[in-house]
Automatic annotation (TrEMBL):
InterPro entries listed in its UniProt record: Bact_solute-bd_prot1, SBP
One Pfam family of this chain: SBP_bac_1
Transmembrane segment boundaries: none
Source organism of the structure: Nonomuraea polychroma
SUPFAM superfamilies in the cross-refs: Periplasmic binding protein-like II
Protein name as annotated: Carbohydrate ABC transporter substrate-binding protein (CUT1 family)
Length: 412
């Protein structure tokens, strides 16, 4: 798959107006406030189109498919649309741009997010917002159970969850997402920590590998044995988070980006007792995902690619990343996480958990395919089967056959 080259300032249709399409997000609100500074520095004008996620996807489908040049910069989800956009050659190759400015420093971006915004060895996006999976836990319940620190391994997590549930029958030892599609992203860290992945090195389905079967059995078993009574199998993060913040669970694995739901007294009954820890290690170590939930790319059909890159370079600079992170938006720059100012608004133990996650983090939290929603339904089914006590190995074998067919169809 070829990717269009992203030209310099000599674009034939270059304009002093950069047309930027962004999603509804705190990051977007922050960047809009800072725009006058960029416009003053460069003499360019930025025209922002801001849309909800569904509207954004619809607009991209229509305009990018038509080869429209009226979008220059686009905010996109690397793990949801990245493969589709790259396959369809919607994203410009940014190889020359990321090397050009040593002060901007592309090497400062974390490896996992960069992996997710790279296609066939070429950078096609710059990560702007990151997420890692961490362990949320109740300090008071651990102390009551005689546990001096949060679990460091998945075996310790299982033992601690069982101990607390046995002592406090009204409180779940562990809660997490249970819906077959929503659970996939959070299950992924368990899968990697057992030594598995959704596909193997040759691109074949790997959801029936020994490691995958162990991970499915562990995740589903932990919820079945130590989870909430009569647990539902259609919980996404809002339902799982509600159980934790209402004081009904001791441990919860979830994206760090949602942490304010647990620490804000207006939203959480347990805000003063919440702790954070790195994702517990499995047989293959602690391997949580470390992903960019959003990135900026240049529309390959834009006639204003030079100025589009100027906007991206500014919006992803060390200064803007630091300002964003101070407002609670976790970025992808190593230097900003190393800067005390960059972590001043985050809980100290969460900063430590994130630092651990970025070292061994895996750059995807779902199958890297074009039709992501369909793939999640397939690989998520064994999670539900494990929670409901069905034969996990058989469920994984069935899912593996279905996922391999899906991969074969997608490769045609």
């Amino acid at each position: 798959m070829g990717l269009s080259a992203c030209g310099g300032g000599g674009d034939s249709g270059a304009s002093n107006t950069v047309r930027v399409t962004l999603a509804n997000h705190v990051w977007t609100e922050n960047i809009k406030k800072a725009l006058p500074e960029f416009e003053k520095q460069t003499g360019l004008k930025v025209e922002v189109t801001q849309l909800g996620e569904d509207q954004l996807s619809d607009q991209y489908n229509v305009k990018l498919n038509a080869g429209s040049s009226d979008i220059d910069v686009m905010m996109y989800r690397p793990l949801q649309e990245g493969k589709l956009f790259a396959k369809n050659k919607y994203l410009a190759d940014l190889s020359d741009q990321v090397k050009a400015n040593k002060t901007w420093d592309f090497s400062d971006f974390q490896a996992g997010p960069v992996e997710a915004t790279t296609h066939e060895g070429k950078p096609v996006g710059v990560p702007i917002i990151t997420e890692q999976e961490v362990l949320y836990y109740r300090k008071d319940l651990l102390a009551k159970a005689g546990l001096s620190e949060p679990p460091k391994t998945l075996d310790e997590l299982k033992a601690a969850a069982a101990k607390i549930k046995a002592a406090e029958p009204d409180i779940a030892g562990f809660v997490a997402r249970t819906g077959k599609s929503p659970a996939v992203t959070q299950f992924s860290s368990f899968l990697y920590s057992f030594g598995g992945d959704f596909v193997d090195g040759s691109g074949k389905s790997a959801v029936s590998s020994d490691a995958a079967k162990q991970a499915y059995a562990y995740y589903g078993g932990l919820i079945k044995e130590s989870g909430p009574a009569n647990v539902s199998t259609d919980m996404g993060w809002p339902e799982a988070m509600a159980i934790f913040t209402q004081g009904k669970a001791a441990f919860y694995t979830e994206a760090n980006s949602l942490y304010k739901n647990a620490t804000d007294p207006a939203k959480s009954k347990v805000s003063d007792t919440v702790g954070f820890a790195p994702f517990p290690a499995g047989p293959a170590g602690s391997k949580p995902y470390n992903i960019p939930s959003w990135a900026l790319g240049v529309n390959a059909s834009s006639e204003n690619t030079g100025n589009a890159w100027k906007f991206i370079e500014w919006a992803t600079s060390k200064e803007q990343t630091l300002a964003q992170q101070k407002s609670g938006v976790p970025g992808a720059r190593t230097s900003v996480w190393a800067n005390p100012e960059g972590t001043s608004t985050f809980p100290k133990d969460l900063v430590e958990a994130i630092a651990a996650s970025t070292k061994a983090g895996v750059g995807h939290d779902r199958p890297l395919v074009v039709k992501v929603a369909e793939a999640r339904e397939i690989v998520g089914q064994p999670i539900v089967d494990a929670i409901t006590g069905n034969d996990v190995a058989a469920a994984a074998d069935t899912a593996n056959a279905a996922f391999q067919k899906f991969l074969d169809d997608e490769a045609k």
